Amino acid sequence: MKYEELCKIYERLEATSSRLDKTEILANFLHKLKKEKNKEIIYLLRGSVFPDYSQKEVGISAQLAIKAISKATGIPAEDVVEEWKKSGDLGKTAEKLVKKKKQITLFQKELTTEKVLENLRKAAELEGPGTIEKKISLLAELLSAAKPIEARYLIRTVLGELRVGTGEGIMRDAITWACFGREKAKEYVASVEAAYDKANDFAAVFEAACHGVKKLEEIMLVPGKPVKVMLALKAKNIADAFEQVGKPAAFEFKYDGFRMMLNKSEDGKITIFTRRLEDVTKQFPEVVEYVKKYIKAKSFIIDSEAVGYSPRTKKYRPFQEISQRIKRKYDIEKLSKELPVEVNVFDIIYYNGKSLLNEPFRKRSELLRKIVKGKKLELKPAEQLITDSESKAESFFRKALKAGHEGLMAKNLDAPYKPGARVGYMLKIKPEEKEFDLVIVGAEYGTGKRGGWLSSFVIACRDEKTGNFLEVGKVGTGIKEKQEVGLSFDELTKMLKPLIVEEHGRDVRIKPKIVVTVVYQNIQKSPKYASGFALRFPRITRLRPDRSPSDIATLSEIREEWEKETGRKKS
Ligand code: AMP
For ligand 1, is residue 425 a contact (CB within 6 Å)? Predict the structure, then answer.
């Protein structure tokens, strides 16, 4: 297909903000694409050259794109930059400069979508010495053949700035309209969506949809390829959970970590994906070992939550403290020792060559527990209680909180697994949020866009016996970056700066004057803070200028709340 034809579609998509118009433009285009052999052109519609599940990137920065524009047009890079400064849009700059040059070029080769896919994919695969030069050449080759409008969209595509509004929902609707007709969209859209949630690949879904709904339904899970995870809804409390998922129900600890999809493909290869479909296998070598050691099956896709713990005390730690493991690319072995994770498996959706999506949770969970021989602090099935008793579920809830977890998940025993869907087959139950008035006794200067502001605040309660202020945590959320509604960093910084009594690098100590209301989820014992307690998930909700530090929450009030929460004292 001519690339120009696609660029005209981009232009039309860009010109309208109406969802229906966009869907119609796309559906008409897809209707034409049905006849093309190569359905992968659909990736270009989304501003990519790979399916959504892929981690590959073209890897061309604005700096490289400038060099390529210069190479293709013969215009010095400094002049390209000058032009770019004027328009602020490198795509427009490329369009203008290509136009200038084209006036004197007679011969012009037609650019095709296939050629664009080919060159940009080649660029993504390059490695080693000479990569940069080769990337520039691949893009310059395309730009040399490009018409001005093609240059505009080519540059936007490589920079990841296409932004023509072809989100997942619109693509799903357009495929449904193109393959089943707009009138019948309601009937078929769920099949298209379900297929996409399994495949995460619009070319595969479109190809199947072209051959009818049966082919769509045949789209299978493939271990080793990421699939979207099923999401949870909320329940107010245990009684509400039973109401929503029925009796009996499965209750499981809700671990405060991050989702991990553990895959073993037919060839024995292990891959780990996050809920955002990122491949994090390399970042978690110890988890790969646990999977090999503790899960006995030829192939599978197992859903789990990895939760961090302290290697010293073996206590669980909140997600924020281990989140760096997901992104880290170096010192991985060292980090895996410092920030170890325990993997809690809770569902299985593919086993020895078969999809289990439509099996009831009861069966999936039983199978999982049969094939996983677990070990604490390494990999094990999530703590589970199947019951129809409210009081048993309540005490299980308290047990979870006492062990340092966020709460419980309640699961419908008869439900299938719906990838990507936020359905009521799985509910989260957390303790009600509570609040304390506390005083700010310290802070930390922010970095990046919070540079210059105090952006993280140490909060304290009052020890009623000594009158001292004792720290109960650190809070950076609840405050706005801009002064629109509520409390802003700017405002708080201005109030706190005159009260600074000591500075150590970015940390400052602050005279206890400013009282704030802090909402939190639960309280944990913590040796890190002088009070011996830490508020979990704290959020500042407002200033309390009407309160003095002598009015704030006392240490014994905090201890009492903790006792209530952990069942040491009846509420
Ligand atoms: P939330 O992120 O607050 O919507 O809560 C749902 C999340 O809890 C899931 O996406 C999982 O990452 C996590 N989770 C922790 N433990 C479990 C469990 N036993 N079953 C299902 N999800 C869990």
Answer: no
